[in-house]
């Protein structure tokens, strides 16, 4: 059978090999890049070209990949009550009241994304206040960070939580001034409520994945590294949702599935191993949580929080337990991807990786790494590790995070420039649904470190990235994080024909205009998965 080639031309095509490097045309064949160079040169040299794709002046990059998100969680959030836009506790109450009025008695009221830092009164609702809003409906409202949640009395009752229920390991059931359950739950305490919820059916999960993929390709994403396999009825069931989706019609992207440490055994018992499962699906690193988040003061710090001196956060696992989890991953010949936000959590992780090095030629991953004091950066430089950064966190977390950490610690936090210039591999993601699943918004946040309406230099302006560095997080950086730097993330012969096509050159436009770029096309495996107008 004669091979078929496609020539991509008449646009600005960035290879992402080095700053400013562009080519006139790209020849693709069978889902891969065959050659790059001048249009006439490629037409003369290759006789297999039977399709010419005129970019019509658009700008083409290697496909953008979100290095850390929760795809099923994103889809669920898009399908249920969104509290992320609330700017006051009154607005949040009104949305909850309206939603409750539409539910039958006994139906769960589920909401996502509330953030008290956006409220002038910083209000966190009490369980009894939620009871007045929905007395006949169990309620679970997940905070924006997904490391804290609110629940009403009926939800507590269904979960069997009383005032004498002890805190679960790695979590806190917060009490009020009278020693009663306040309704506020931190980290693993949230899971106790979730176990009382009815299981989501397969149809709803497939719909959640469908809307997530559609949202991602519309934003120019050709891939995502997602963590979902421990939350929807077990490893095999959740994997089946992804496989079923790929067998159906609809847009495709490349999905790397992180494997939560609690389901690694299930994975191996079913005969699966780390690495590629199919053209669009692969198993990634073992996911472990070391701590919580700064918003709920559950990120694990070396010293107490500046604005709440009686706490320094939560260790999801002790040092010894974390060591054992990493050791177990090594026995399975797998890298790890550890959530670590606080500096003490990062110290725990580094220590475990030093004692149990990653398999030859494989990188471990540290997700978030928001607090990186100099002594820990020096140790990171010696490890085979990639850091999963979320640039948009700078916009969401400042200025309130300065109150949590104080001036000294904040000076070495969210330090993306320092980390990159230290030679540490860094990838870019959204942690969606926590942040918008929009790589352009993330790129702009990395470059400006402020919202467009804010009139200052940016939060910690010395840590601003160049546009090239920011785009690299979502291209070469995301590829390096999964050991695919010789296959993905560049426009180069032998690499996958995955492209993100935009209406403007985000490497040269004013930084404040990056997120306004329009996605003209998302190409995976040489095929358009989305075409903009």
Fold and architecture overview:
With 533 residues, the chain is α/β, with parallel strands linked by helices. Strand 2 (22-29) and strand 3 (32-37) form a beta hairpin. Helix content is 31%, strand content 24%. Strands 6, 13, 14, 15, 16, 17, 18, 19 and 20 form a nine-stranded mixed beta sheet that branches. Strands 1, 2, 3, 4, 5, 21, 22 and 23 form an eight-stranded mixed beta sheet that branches. The protein has a six-stranded mixed beta sheet with strand order 7-8-9-10-12-11, sandwiched between helices. It has three domains: 5-57, Urease, subunit C, domain 1, CATH 2.30.40; 65-70 and 203-489, Alpha-Beta Barrel (TIM Barrel); 72-194, Diaminopimelate Epimerase, Chain A, domain 1, CATH 3.10.310.70. It contains 18 helices and 23 strands.
What are the salient characteristics of this protein?
533 residues; alpha/beta; Urease, subunit C, domain 1; TIM Barrel; Diaminopimelate Epimerase, Chain A, domain 1; 3 domains; 9-stranded mixed beta sheet; globular
């Amino acid at each position: 059978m004669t091979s078929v080639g496609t020539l991509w031309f008449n646009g600005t095509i960035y290879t992402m090999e080095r700053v400013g490097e562009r080519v006139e045309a790209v020849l693709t064949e069978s889902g891969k890049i065959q050659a790059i160079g001048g249009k006439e040169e490629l037409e003369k040299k290759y006789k297999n070209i039977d399709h010419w794709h005129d970019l019509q002046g658009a700008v083409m990059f290697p496909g953008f990949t979100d290095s850390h998100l929760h795809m099923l969680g994103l889809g669920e959030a898009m399908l249920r009550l969104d509290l992320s836009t609330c700017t006051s506790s009154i607005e949040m109450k009104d949305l909850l009241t309206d939603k409750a009025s539409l539910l039958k008695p006994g139906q769960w009221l589920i909401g996502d994304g509330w953030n008290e830092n956006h409220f002038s009164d910083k209000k966190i609702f009490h369980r009894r206040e939620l009871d007045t809003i929905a007395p006949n409906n169990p309620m679970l409202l997940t905070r924006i960070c997904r490391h804290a949640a609110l629940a009403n009395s009926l939800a507590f009752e269904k979960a069997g939580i009383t005032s004498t229920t002890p805190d679960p390991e790695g979590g806190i059931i917060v009490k009020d001034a009278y020693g009663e359950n306040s309704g506020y739950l931190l980290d693993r305490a949230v899971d106790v409520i979730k176990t009382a919820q009815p299981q989501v059916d397969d149809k709803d999960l497939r719909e959640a994945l469908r809307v997530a993929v559609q949202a991602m390709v519309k934003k120019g994403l050709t891939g995502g590294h997602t963590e979902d396999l421990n939350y929807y009825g077990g490893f095999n069931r959740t994997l089946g949702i992804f496989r079923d989706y790929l067998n159906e019609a609809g847009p495709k992207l490349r999905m790397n599935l992180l494997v939560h440490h609690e389901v690694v055994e299930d994975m191996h018992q079913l005969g699966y191993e780390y690495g590629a499962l199919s053209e669009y699906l692969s198993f990634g690193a073992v996911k472990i949580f070391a701590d919580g988040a700064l918003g709920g003061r559950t990120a694990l710090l070396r010293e107490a929080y500046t604005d709440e001196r009686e706490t320094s956060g939560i260790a999801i696992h002790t040092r010894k337990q974390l060591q054992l989890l990493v050791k177990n991953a090594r026995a399975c010949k797998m890298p790890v991807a550890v959530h670590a936000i606080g500096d003490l959590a990062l110290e725990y992780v580094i220590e475990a990786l030093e004692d149990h090095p990653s398999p030859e030629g494989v990188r471990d991953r540290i997700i978030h790494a928001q607090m990186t004091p100099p002594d820990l950066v020096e140790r990171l430089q010696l490890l085979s590790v990639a850091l999963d950064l979320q640039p948009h966190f700078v916009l969401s977390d400042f200025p309130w995070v300065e109150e949590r950490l104080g001036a000294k610690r904040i000076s070495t936090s969210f330090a993306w420039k320092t980390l990159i210039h230290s030679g540490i591999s860094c990838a870019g993601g959204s942690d969606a649904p926590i942040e918008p699943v929009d790589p352009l918004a993330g790129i702009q946040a990395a470059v400006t470190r402020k919202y467009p309406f804010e009139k200052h230099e940016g939060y910690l302006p010395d840590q601003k990235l160049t546009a090239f560095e920011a785009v690299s997080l979502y291209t070469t950086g995301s590829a390096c994080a999964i050991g695919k730097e010789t296959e993905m993330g560049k426009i180069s012969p032998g690499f996958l024909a995955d492209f993100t096509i935009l209406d403007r050159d985000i490497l040269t436009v004013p930084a404040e205009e990056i997120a306004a770029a329009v996605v003209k096309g998302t190409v995976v495996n040489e095929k358009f998965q989305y075409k903009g107008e």
